[in-house]
Design goal:
This protein is α/β, with parallel strands linked by helices. The protein is built from 9 helices and 10 strands. The protein binds zinc ion.
Length: about 325
Amino acid sequence: MSDLNQSAPDMAAIEKFWKAEDKEMGERHRRMTADYSAAKVLMEERRSRRLSIVLTCMDERCALIEDALGLLPGEALVHSSGGGRMETEAFSAVFGSRIIGAQKKGAAVAVWLVTHECVGDENLGCAAFDNNIDAQVDYFITLKKNLSDQYHDAFIHVLALDSTTYAFRRVSVDERDPELARSAVGLKEFAAAEKAHAGYGVYIGDAYRAWVDGHNKYFRLSARNSEIAGNFAIALKVMGHHSKVDLSKMPIVLHVDYPKYANEDDSFAAKDNIDLGVASIMSNDQVKEMLADGRMRLMKTETDIASWQGKLVEG
Ligand SMILES: [Zn+2]
């Protein structure tokens, strides 16, 4: 893990920020859970017609990706990782049975493979791909081809979110999708204002929007991500070297959120994968030091995926 290139920490400011963040996190969780509950009937109705799957980068500027795609928070199945990477076999292991089940019931299936870029500033693109747009596009075009071979009837789209305009560039879309025009709407309200990184938190779990409602604050790592520790290291590097975040006045927040699924085996598998990643993160000397002196804060929660009801486990 790289050194964090920041000025000397103001521990009183860090403590004050954490107290406020801890309180606000609980408040926004209650608000997001209530919104989710209120939208549940509409969401179930939409899901019965169309299953939406989103692969997206952990980048905190992609936080509101569901909104950008015209989806309600919680409506889609989202896999979030460094660069939005997911191998074909892993995709099928996580989503295959859901796709087949949806299609059996007559629902359409849309898969959104979303990369991101920063037009006009090549250092503020996707850190997980070293800002190499050609490599990003190649990766997702290949993934789309592999997925199309297996899931002929699914609408599979490759988009790039431009974090200058917060509009999508259509890299490779499936014109058969009748909802394409309605879907990829972007986030025009952030255009111009939010070009740079500003994240200070990393969320690990499967109910991101049950805890995070703001843009450009928390990185997002899914519970089944096989590279949790490596992706966390990239997030730290971004915070230390390519971000306007001021870590001398706020702590890095590591929010570990164990998902509770209807199927217990899925919950155990997710917990095992998260614990493995977190143990690897914790074995790093710099992380140990930051946790010990308060520059990094760890909180653990558990969230029921069906209701978004969460509870504190440790923190
Ligand atoms: Zn990225």
